[in-house]
Amino acid sequence: MNKVSLILSWLSLRSTSVSLPQRFLQPHFSHPAGQQGLSKRVLGASLIALGLPMSLQADALPDLKGREVVVVTENAYPPLQFVDPKTGEAIGWEYDAMNELAKRLNFTLVIENSSWDAMIPAISEAQFDIGMTGITIREDRKEKVDFSAPYMRSEMFMLVRADEDRFANAEEFAALEDGLVGAQAGTTPFYTAVYEVLDGDEQNPRIKLFETFGASVQALRSNDVDLVLTDGTAGNGYVNANPESFKLVGDAMGSEDFGFIFPKGSDLLAPINAGIASLKEDGTLDQLNTTWFLDYELGR
Amino acid sequence: MTQHKQQDDPSDSDFPWWLVVTLLIGAWLGYRIVSDDLYTEVFGILVKGIGVTTFVTVTAFTLASALGLLLAAAVLSPWLVVRQCARFYIEIMRGIPMLVLLFYIAFVAAPGLVTLANALFGQWMDAPLRTRDFSLMWRAIAALTLGYSAFIAEVFRAGILSVGRGQSEAALSLGLTPFSRFRYVIFPQAFRTILPPLGNDFIAMIKDSALVSVLGVADITQLGKIYAAGSFRFMETYNIVAYIYLLVTIVLSLLLRRLESRLRQSQSQIDPGS
Question: What residues form the membrane-spanning segments (chain B) (predicted)?
Fold first, then answer.
């Protein structure tokens, strides 16, 4: 199961206070159906590191004097952090970013593993110092943990069967009266489906609810539903691993920002934010986006 | 002395067709593992989880058996308060799903106990205890131990009660102490009754140990979850996960059946006439 579905399953537990995604903050990229090279470009564009207002020189960064910082991750959200199927090594965008932060801020990085279910509780009780696992910055989670400044933006795409020719964007899908969409209740894809694709009725019978993201993708494969909304990263991974079964169509929809999480009141928050600002400033984050979203071939 | 002749298990003398079918499926998957690069890769990564799964299961099962035996003794004790406390514990633990118990132990009980320990003994400690000093793996083992001790206590209780009252009276008349009565007379006889359900619990626990992956413990299931997330190959990964669990449980199952039938044979040698 990938991290997106785990994020989504967390969201579904907190569905009472789910806010609608910010709409269309990014310029749209039209996405000709079925061309993988182009879908990768869209994916890269879908994850854009955010700038911060302040500007910091690298030499003005705080010095943590080699102190030990325990960072916890699950390794289940490619390409942010995952285990390379070929080598068994843990790699990814977030590992590179965190290693660079450790270098610039002078701290000793210790990596621990936990699962998504355990992460927010474990961080909130300060069992680890930082959690990194593509965590969407959300108001309700801020009651439990502190968030860093955003370092990445993710957007939703439409995942369909490879032979789908009845629709190629949200409007055409909405017009297709017997078209079904699979989602998890209370998650960002669910609300995007209700408010940006369909008619705003959360009871709409065209939405079929599933327990996990993986289950909704299997339902798509087996013709039980016709559309699944997904983060560009996960969607592209499914397409790459099963090009005969899936493709991405349409424009990017609702977007979310990712941040690292800290125990409430952590003294690491300010230094890490300064570090993220400096990574943004000198283009390191853009470079990581190129490395992991454009050059690296997932699911191959 | 009321010694019933034990009925033969008809499935004992059957030709084990189920095993043949299982072996055929196993052979097919084994062939895939050898011949298909993807399967080879998944298998190579997942077998590393066998060690963790085995450690968690064996540790938790040993602790749960010890606790279960104490609980069974408590339930059969002559004192009302002890009996009621044990019964309360068993009913509560047996009624809570293992997954819920895991989350309780990991995120409610462990931090709570640390806070309590610091409040009570903090003045005698150099540095306050931290929740992070107790790894998620040991919290998972604790949860499995507490949950399974309730089931195992019931197994022991039923086994002990299955030994005729006359046995206990005979032992008493020989002047044995209560502990010796239990150790040399009651328990060896009860063990035959206990073994099949205890083996059942052990195999159930191997499978339930997959739940510890929700805490991020790197067992077979968690490694499979991570591999599937990185490769987007769900079917192949979970085929191998299931294959490894079956490998372990079927081998154990066969060993248990052999042990059982050996105990039955030695029983019939003791009472040839019955």
Answer: 15-34, 55-81, 101-124, 136-156, 240-256
